[in-house]
Amino acid sequence: MSRMPVVSTKDANLFARLIYRIARRRYGAVPEPFAVIAHHTGLLAAGALHELAVEKAARTLPANVREIVGYRVAVRLGCSWCVDFGTMLQKHEGLDIERLKHIDDYATSPLYSRQERLAIAYADAVTATPVAVTDEQVAELEREFGRKGVLELTYLAAVENLRGRMNSALEITDQGFTSGEACRVPLPGLA
Protein backbone atom coordinates (compact mmCIF):
# COMPACT_ATOMS: atom_id res chain seq x y z
CA MET A 1 0.00 0.00 0.00
CA SER A 2 1.45 3.35 -0.99
CA ARG A 3 1.70 6.29 1.39
CA MET A 4 -1.07 7.99 -0.59
CA PRO A 5 -4.21 6.25 -1.75
CA VAL A 6 -4.88 5.82 -5.44
CA VAL A 7 -7.63 7.84 -7.06
CA SER A 8 -10.24 5.29 -8.09
CA THR A 9 -11.77 5.46 -11.54
CA LYS A 10 -15.11 6.52 -10.06
CA ASP A 11 -13.45 9.34 -8.09
CA ALA A 12 -11.17 10.46 -10.93
CA ASN A 13 -11.91 13.57 -12.95
CA LEU A 14 -12.56 13.32 -16.69
CA PHE A 15 -8.90 13.82 -17.65
CA ALA A 16 -7.65 11.17 -15.21
CA ARG A 17 -10.29 8.71 -16.44
CA LEU A 18 -9.03 9.28 -19.99
CA ILE A 19 -5.44 8.60 -18.88
CA TYR A 20 -6.60 5.49 -17.02
CA ARG A 21 -8.41 4.21 -20.11
CA ILE A 22 -5.33 4.70 -22.30
CA ALA A 23 -3.12 3.05 -19.67
CA ARG A 24 -5.43 0.03 -19.33
CA ARG A 25 -5.43 -0.45 -23.09
CA ARG A 26 -1.65 -0.12 -23.28
CA TYR A 27 -0.53 -1.97 -20.14
CA GLY A 28 -3.48 -4.09 -19.07
CA ALA A 29 -3.91 -2.08 -15.85
CA VAL A 30 -3.56 1.47 -14.60
CA PRO A 31 0.01 1.89 -13.32
CA GLU A 32 -0.23 2.78 -9.64
CA PRO A 33 2.02 5.87 -9.99
CA PHE A 34 -0.57 7.30 -12.41
CA ALA A 35 -3.41 6.62 -9.98
CA VAL A 36 -1.53 8.24 -7.10
CA ILE A 37 -0.42 11.34 -9.00
CA ALA A 38 -4.02 11.76 -10.21
CA HIS A 39 -4.55 13.70 -6.97
CA HIS A 40 -2.71 16.51 -8.81
CA THR A 41 -4.17 16.73 -12.31
CA GLY A 42 -1.60 19.26 -13.49
CA LEU A 43 1.28 16.92 -12.63
CA LEU A 44 -0.59 13.95 -14.11
CA ALA A 45 -0.90 15.86 -17.39
CA ALA A 46 2.72 17.06 -17.29
CA GLY A 47 3.97 13.56 -16.51
CA ALA A 48 1.90 11.90 -19.22
CA LEU A 49 3.05 14.38 -21.86
CA HIS A 50 6.65 14.09 -20.73
CA GLU A 51 6.59 10.27 -20.80
CA LEU A 52 5.10 10.26 -24.31
CA ALA A 53 7.65 12.81 -25.53
CA VAL A 54 10.58 10.87 -24.07
CA GLU A 55 9.30 7.64 -25.60
CA LYS A 56 9.08 9.25 -29.04
CA ALA A 57 12.40 11.13 -28.81
CA ALA A 58 14.63 8.43 -27.29
CA ARG A 59 15.41 6.41 -30.40
CA THR A 60 19.15 6.98 -30.89
CA LEU A 61 20.27 4.05 -28.72
CA PRO A 62 19.41 0.42 -29.39
CA ALA A 63 16.38 -0.79 -27.41
CA ASN A 64 18.46 -3.17 -25.30
CA VAL A 65 20.69 -0.29 -24.15
CA ARG A 66 17.75 2.08 -23.48
CA GLU A 67 15.90 -0.51 -21.44
CA ILE A 68 18.88 -1.76 -19.44
CA VAL A 69 19.73 1.79 -18.30
CA GLY A 70 16.29 2.32 -16.78
CA TYR A 71 16.31 -1.13 -15.24
CA ARG A 72 19.74 -0.64 -13.66
CA VAL A 73 18.74 2.70 -12.13
CA ALA A 74 15.60 1.06 -10.71
CA VAL A 75 17.68 -1.72 -9.17
CA ARG A 76 20.19 0.74 -7.70
CA LEU A 77 17.41 2.83 -6.16
CA GLY A 78 15.52 -0.20 -4.91
CA CYS A 79 12.32 0.80 -6.69
CA SER A 80 10.42 -2.49 -6.92
CA TRP A 81 7.67 -0.90 -9.01
CA CYS A 82 10.21 0.33 -11.59
CA VAL A 83 11.96 -3.06 -11.65
CA ASP A 84 8.62 -4.80 -12.23
CA PHE A 85 7.50 -2.40 -14.96
CA GLY A 86 10.97 -2.27 -16.55
CA THR A 87 11.08 -6.05 -16.75
CA MET A 88 7.74 -6.02 -18.56
CA LEU A 89 9.04 -3.41 -21.02
CA GLN A 90 12.10 -5.53 -21.78
CA LYS A 91 9.91 -8.58 -22.26
CA HIS A 92 7.79 -6.62 -24.75
CA GLU A 93 10.96 -5.61 -26.61
CA GLY A 94 11.76 -9.32 -26.99
CA LEU A 95 14.79 -9.03 -24.70
CA ASP A 96 16.08 -11.79 -22.44
CA ILE A 97 14.66 -11.02 -19.00
CA GLU A 98 16.27 -14.06 -17.33
CA ARG A 99 19.65 -12.33 -17.52
CA LEU A 100 18.33 -9.49 -15.34
CA LYS A 101 18.89 -11.78 -12.34
CA HIS A 102 22.62 -11.30 -13.02
CA ILE A 103 22.66 -7.51 -13.44
CA ASP A 104 24.97 -7.03 -10.46
CA ASP A 105 27.59 -9.14 -12.29
CA TYR A 106 27.25 -7.16 -15.53
CA ALA A 107 30.95 -6.18 -15.67
CA THR A 108 32.11 -9.78 -16.10
CA SER A 109 28.96 -11.58 -17.25
CA PRO A 110 28.84 -12.82 -20.85
CA LEU A 111 25.11 -12.09 -20.72
CA TYR A 112 25.81 -8.38 -21.33
CA SER A 113 27.31 -6.79 -24.42
CA ARG A 114 30.07 -4.19 -24.34
CA GLN A 115 27.54 -1.45 -25.08
CA GLU A 116 25.30 -2.64 -22.25
CA ARG A 117 28.25 -2.77 -19.84
CA LEU A 118 29.18 0.81 -20.69
CA ALA A 119 25.56 1.94 -20.29
CA ILE A 120 25.10 0.13 -16.97
CA ALA A 121 28.31 1.59 -15.54
CA TYR A 122 27.14 5.03 -16.65
CA ALA A 123 23.70 4.49 -15.08
CA ASP A 124 25.50 3.65 -11.83
CA ALA A 125 27.60 6.81 -12.05
CA VAL A 126 24.59 9.03 -12.81
CA THR A 127 22.62 7.48 -9.93
CA ALA A 128 25.40 7.77 -7.36
CA THR A 129 25.17 10.52 -4.75
CA PRO A 130 27.04 12.65 -5.51
CA VAL A 131 27.03 11.94 -9.23
CA ALA A 132 30.23 10.04 -10.11
CA VAL A 133 30.44 10.50 -13.89
CA THR A 134 33.97 11.04 -15.20
CA ASP A 135 35.32 12.83 -18.29
CA GLU A 136 36.85 9.55 -19.45
CA GLN A 137 33.53 7.78 -19.14
CA VAL A 138 31.71 10.40 -21.22
CA ALA A 139 34.49 10.34 -23.85
CA GLU A 140 34.24 6.54 -24.14
CA LEU A 141 30.45 6.70 -24.37
CA GLU A 142 30.68 9.39 -27.04
CA ARG A 143 33.01 7.19 -29.10
CA GLU A 144 30.55 4.31 -28.73
CA PHE A 145 27.19 6.07 -29.10
CA GLY A 146 27.91 9.59 -30.38
CA ARG A 147 26.87 12.81 -28.67
CA LYS A 148 23.16 12.18 -29.16
CA GLY A 149 23.61 8.77 -27.61
CA VAL A 150 25.39 10.16 -24.54
CA LEU A 151 22.66 12.75 -24.09
CA GLU A 152 19.98 10.09 -24.44
CA LEU A 153 21.74 7.81 -21.92
CA THR A 154 22.04 10.69 -19.47
CA TYR A 155 18.43 11.75 -19.91
CA LEU A 156 17.07 8.22 -19.55
CA ALA A 157 19.10 7.60 -16.39
CA ALA A 158 17.98 10.94 -14.94
CA VAL A 159 14.31 10.32 -15.77
CA GLU A 160 14.45 6.88 -14.17
CA ASN A 161 15.99 8.48 -11.08
CA LEU A 162 12.98 10.81 -10.94
CA ARG A 163 10.51 7.93 -11.30
CA GLY A 164 12.29 5.67 -8.85
CA ARG A 165 12.80 8.32 -6.21
CA MET A 166 9.19 9.46 -6.43
CA ASN A 167 7.84 5.90 -6.23
CA SER A 168 10.16 5.05 -3.35
CA ALA A 169 9.25 8.20 -1.42
CA LEU A 170 5.55 7.37 -1.78
CA GLU A 171 6.12 3.64 -1.15
CA ILE A 172 4.67 2.62 -4.49
CA THR A 173 5.78 -1.00 -4.87
CA ASP A 174 5.66 -3.66 -7.57
CA GLN A 175 2.27 -4.15 -9.12
CA GLY A 176 2.66 -7.54 -10.76
CA PHE A 177 3.31 -6.47 -14.34
CA THR A 178 5.69 -9.39 -14.86
CA SER A 179 4.05 -11.97 -12.62
CA GLY A 180 0.52 -11.43 -13.86
CA GLU A 181 -0.78 -11.23 -10.29
CA ALA A 182 -1.98 -7.63 -10.52
CA CYS A 183 -2.84 -7.65 -14.19
CA ARG A 184 -2.41 -9.59 -17.33
CA VAL A 185 -0.30 -7.51 -19.65
CA PRO A 186 -0.61 -8.74 -23.22
CA LEU A 187 2.46 -8.81 -25.40
CA PRO A 188 2.32 -6.27 -28.23
CA GLY A 189 0.31 -7.52 -31.17
CA LEU A 190 -1.66 -10.01 -29.06
CA ALA A 191 -4.09 -7.53 -27.51
Q: What can you tell me about this protein's structure?
A:
- One of its GO terms (molecular function) is peroxiredoxin activity.
- InterPro entries: AhpD-like, CMD-like.
- This is Alkylhydroperoxidase AhpD family core domain-containing protein.
- Residues 55-124 form the Carboxymuconolactone decarboxylase-like domain.
- The chain is an all-alpha fold.
- It folds into 2 domains: 7-57, Single alpha-helices involved in coiled-coils or other helix-helix interfaces, CATH 1.20.5; 60-184, AhpD-like, CATH 1.20.1290.10.
- It has 7 helices and no strands.
- It has helices spanning 14-27, 32-37, 41-57, 63-77, 80-92, 114-127, 135-169.
The chain-level structural class is mainly alpha
**CATH-defined fold name of the largest domain:** AhpD-like
CA gyration radius, whole angstroms: 17 Å
Order of H and E elements? HHHHHHH
Low-confidence sequence ranges: 181-191
Q: Architecture of the largest domain, according to CATH?
A: Up-down Bundle
Question: Could you tell me the number of beta strands?
Answer: 0
Largest sheet: none
CATH homologous superfamily identity of the largest domain: AhpD-like
> What best-fitting shape do the alpha-carbon axes yield?
globular
Number of helices: 7
- Tell me the β content: under 5%
Supply the CATH class of the largest domain. Mainly Alpha
Compute the number of structural domains: 2
Helix content: 55-70%
| Overall average residue pLDDT | 93
Termini separation comes to 29 Å
Protein name: Alkylhydroperoxidase AhpD family core domain-containing protein
Domain Carboxymuconolactone decarboxylase-like: 55-124
Organism: Amycolatopsis sacchari
Pfam family, one: CMD
